């Protein structure tokens, strides 16, 4: 019986493993770390004495690949969020608050209702997103999206930076096309925000490992792939630092590692060369966060923070496209970002009990027109080796949805 060897136990690798196991393949996973999850994981932080995620992730109910993945492993109920598509915002400069409230159906009636939009914006500012459908491969969001300054600051900038981890003058407009067609065009039923209730590992990783283990899938931790031996047409041996694994004539390989690692293992493979950081700041509060359990997040305008997520007595802040911020000292970042948190959560009289700054310097590849052509397809020059990862040519932004779908593409390419 042939075996599919999957290198990497991040979301892309786990997604591929699940698809292949569902199809009856024997699967074996190798992970160089001591635990699975890659950049989608939770851990106990000593400074906060709390379980936190290495980064914050907001899903939408229309993320079909992620929802199918969670349904397969029985973890759909581990997401929380409002019953309708609601997105709260605050301007930390003056305390003004508003709610983007999308109606359920695909006809966007909400755009013509002032109390459902950001203040000072019009329906035309939102309908302008239709221009993404015609975006060329060399165009940035700034080239395509002509809206008022208020609409850009109060709506589009948080959306673009949050989804693409790049500012509008850098972000590739074409990557917003699937966001428009798969999410926004389907209305509020596809736009409901969803967050991991008890952390990323509890929602995306642990149930997947249990599901795979129940089907006999073995995971070898501490297994770092040092090289691939091939005969010109197919990979014949996986060379790990501690062992070599010879492949049978019908064995296959999914390489689900970061782009730079794949580039080192496969000389000549074109991969992205520029990356964009994300800075996350976690604060332990003096008491439970003052956001409701069904709306545990808020968007921030006019400050350093961009999105704040809460769970219990922890408030976690995400700052995407954070090239400048990532170079600053952690204590300076924590102090500056806390001012935004205190305003947004109405905690001006309090100070955090503890904090932790996490800098993901290569959080995603730079999602610009220059880097998009460097995303490789799943198939490679070797007939038994395919690629998976949010940096591959999924057609989607480098998000949880993109990572999971890349695993599906890889599994499909092998069948």
Fold and architecture overview:
The structure is a single chain. With 415 residues, the chain is an alpha/beta fold. It is built from eleven helices and 20 strands. Helix 1 runs parallel beside helix 8 and helix 2 packs across helix 11.
Give the beta-strand count. Answer: 20
> Kindly state the mean pLDDT as a whole number?
97
Q: Which segments are poorly predicted (pLDDT under 50) over 5 or more consecutive residues?
A: none
Hey, roughly how much beta strand do the residues contain? 25-35%
Count of alpha and pi helical runs: 11
Instruction: Tell me the span between the first and last alpha carbons.
Output: 14 Å
Portion in helices: 25-40%
**What is the spatial order of strands in the main beta sheet?**
8-7-16-17-18-15-19
Oligomer classification? single chain
Overall structural class, as computed from helix and strand content, comes to: alpha/beta
**Rg for CA atoms:** 22 Å
Shape: globular
Largest sheet: 7 strands, mixed
Concise synopsis of the structure shown:
This protein is of the alpha/beta class and 415 residues long. It has helices at residues 11-22, 64-73, 123-127, 141-144, 149-164, 177-182, 188-191, 200-213, 259-265, 330-344, 400-414; strands at residues 3-7, 26-31, 42-45, 50-53, 59-60, 79-80, 85-91, 97-102, 193-196, 218-221, 225-230, 235-240, 244-246, 252-255, 275-284, 297-301, 307-311, 314-319, 354-365, 385-387. It is globular and about 65 Å long.
